[in-house]
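Onboarding guide, step 5: your first structure request.
Type a short instruction followed by the sequence, for example:

Predict the 3D structure of this protein.
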Amino acid sequence: MEKINFDENWKFFYGDLEKGFLPDFDDTLWRIVDLPHDFSIELPRRPDAPSKRDGGYFQTGIGWYRKRFFVPEEYREKKVIIEFEGIYMNSQVWVNGFFVGERPNGYISFYYDITEYLKFESENVIAVRVDNSKQPNSRWYSGSGIYRHVWLSIIEKLHIGYWGIYITTPSVSKEKAEILIKILIENEEKKNFSVWMNLKIIDPYGNEVYEKNGNLEINENEKIEISESFIIEKPYLWSAETPYIYKNIIEIGSDKKILERRETNFGIRSIEFSRDGLKINGKVIKLKGACVHHDNGILGAASYDRAEERKVEILKRNGFNAVRTAHNPPSPSFLDACDRVGLYVIDEAFDVWEKPKLPFDYSNYFEKWWQRDLEDMIYRDRNHPSIIIWSIGNEVVERNLPEGVEIAKNLISTVKKIDNTRPITCAVCGFKGDWSEADGLFEELDICGYNYQRDNYRKDHERKPERIIVATESFPLFAFDYWLDVLELPYVIGDFVWTGIDYLGEAGIGYARFEGDNLPENYSYPWHQANCGDIDICGFKRPQSFYRDILLREEPQVYIFVHHPLSNGKYKDISGWGWYSVFQSWTWNGFEGRELFVDIYSNCDYVELFLNSNSLGIKEISKETKFIATYRVPYKKGNLKAVGYKNNKIVCEYNLFTAGSPYKIILRPDRERISSKKGDLCYIVCEVVDKEGIINPEAENIIEFTVKGEGVIEAVGNSNPLSEEDYRGNKRKVYLGKCLVVVKSIGKKGKIEIIGKSEGLKSGKIIIYAE
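The system replies with structure tokens like these:
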């Protein structure tokens, strides 16, 4: 298979057309875009946007994409396949004016055989219509357009099935592992073939550890599945802690001609589950989980490889070992990153079944499309070692109804026919009836997903002692209680907080209100970020992330957070998805002498707080205090320091310093060298600091960015959920002293210079390299 990236040089038109699919349609004035492309993130937010608060007040609509491409004569005797990793939503595809197919689901990957529509040794035109105009159709920001990669694959008529390789590890130990590989071979030629096959396994260090050669006969228009089972001695086992990746290489040919060469990554690991816990490779683990939506923050829904990888790296770096792809199949790049970096995955299929949550959601298409969409998800994803659980739905309306049980049976049966090596769950939330009404659905599942239902853990265990439970969603505000249950109850295998990373849409669900906060009405414009998540939309740690560090990590830690002076430590309303209005700041101009509430998060035995070297007292900290100690401190400029004690020794400390006036801009890239391949990204944090280099959290300077060399600005943003600024352009106001700029490679090697300027501040400049 020759797989060609098909992302570059599409033409785009925002709006609808009658004849946009015709090959000779005049598109000369259309804008040229590279994929992935999300046209909603480019449009200004509006209070009256039909997507409403669920969609973050972003505009949607209809868009057309067209691309011209040359097909050489040598492809005439082959098959040409086009794969779309995701189009949101209601896509229709034409090639040279011929209708190829449609797909309503905005998250599923799909492919078409376009061979019969092509003109060889000539120019061809592919046209795609995307219709995201019927709103609301999503409970979060969906994005619009061809927002994931597109691939063109050239294969022989005798070939391996497109998603036709299936690798499992039926028996695994430290001493040896059994590998079972199933290969679907399809002969679309009008003749019989004698075929040879070569199979190799390469270990994580590049060593060949297995090879097998064989022959087979295949008749015209026949499909056959070949199974190969063998043993690998002393295998490197895949886990979140040791994400070892093996490579399977398969070549098939006839006579001396290679017809296809396919490489497939896989991992060797075992999964066991019972009421006594979840075991990976024989070891009991607890899932330290995060739910995540598919968007990439300030990039919108555009699924750049680096954006997906960075998301996974951030989750892993901040204590998570598992992720739930809420509530849809993620991009292949995201799953590849989970394999490499090491995160366990709950791969989820649907947010709705037949009964709707919104007028134009997937329920309108479920009856016709569920089986094909679910099958494509399982076929596409089943070789990823990171995926340890399949999820067939989230908070579906039918969860406590008899018809829901029947739908679940059909979904489960479909999954198990394709992959029977992983348990299946479904996330269930509360309803007006008795919670036991969910028993019918739960009895069909291997693992029962509880959304915000920790009060039922113990009661249900008494009723149903064999039930295995996972908190598929939990409130960050009650992180201590949820995680303590996971530690204490073996039949609760993990906890997935809503959410790991903040996202666009579900505007303002993570609010915290106090007298004088001056916030707009909950969920109303200009709220557009959810304002929940351990990590904010730019990738910066929020207070709840530091608190989760205390819960999940063993090394001694201590952190200081100061409540907003107007809250006085008291809140009239705070969402379970939110957190207290606290800040890592000892800069409160205008509040001199005012008593401030100061929280210390720590997993030490005792903590001590100092203001300008004067002790404010030692306090015990433990499970009984939920690892929080609170002080009342009259505000005075200087240094606020916390120290943590274990065994009567200081083992850690944390400092906050009052910042002086904004003085200069500091730019901090996540990488100094990126790929020159078109579309690679560099994330650059911009900080406004005083003369001592301390970030000034009260700074609101507007930073203007310029880029010279082999890069362009792709997005600018900050973490302010109420900002009305666009995420496109070259200017952004800092929020809490920081903002973010994302620079994209243009496909050439060389230097990229990034400069940040603001009136009255010393400019910042960095150089990175595209190689």
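Each response can be followed by summary notes, for example: The longest strand covers residues 158-172.
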